């Protein structure tokens, strides 16, 4: 279950068996200027398109998945999802490279760009020109 609202708002509307996940942030790109430098030496970018969904993968020279993400475009918005960089490959600009590669698939430049960020991601995206629109809460029923 997901809600553009606080953890407390979501918790108050769910039965006790639901477990609220760590807080997130629903964000919009306001001036999101991404540095479009190529991926660093020793990495390669792969893009895969399937209808409105684009997936980006940064592969390290040893074949490991270093970073990835996907995006989808509708008539009204461009949404980034699951932008992740493996711990041992962070601080090399790979996450920004994934986002720039995904953005290159965007057909409508006037469509707002949206994403849900973790607490750590919120600071990174804020530095890239993103603004928090609302808190974003999620809850799951834990497996027995």
TrEMBL record:
The record places domain N-acetyltransferase at 18-144
**What SUPFAM superfamilies has UniProt attached to this entry?**
Acyl-CoA N-acyltransferases (Nat)
Q: State the InterPro entries in the record.
A: Acyl_CoA_acyltransferase (IPR016181), GNAT_dom (IPR000182)
Reading the lineage from the top rank, the first entry is: Bacteria
Q: Which Pfam family is one of this chain's hits?
A: Acetyltransf_1
Listed name of the protein? GNAT family N-acetyltransferase
Species of provenance: Lysobacter niastensis
């Amino acid at each position: 279950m997901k809600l553009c609202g606080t953890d407390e708002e979501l918790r108050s509307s769910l039965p006790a068996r639901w477990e609220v996940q760590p807080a997130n942030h629903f964000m919009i790109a306001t001036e999101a200027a991404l540095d479009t430098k190529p991926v660093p030496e020793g990495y390669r970018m792969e893009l895969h398109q399937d209808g409105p969904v684009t997936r980006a993968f940064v592969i390290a020279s040893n074949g490991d998945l270093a970073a990835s993400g996907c995006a989808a475009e509708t008539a009204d918005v461009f949404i980034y999802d699951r932008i992740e960089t493996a711990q041992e490959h962070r601080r090399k600009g790979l996450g920004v490279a994934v986002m720039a590669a995904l953005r290159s698939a965007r057909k409508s430049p006037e469509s707002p760009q949206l994403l849900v960020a973790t607490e750590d991601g919120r600071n990174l995206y804020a530095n890239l020109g993103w603004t928090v629109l609302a808190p974003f809460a999620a809850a799951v029923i834990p497996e027995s």
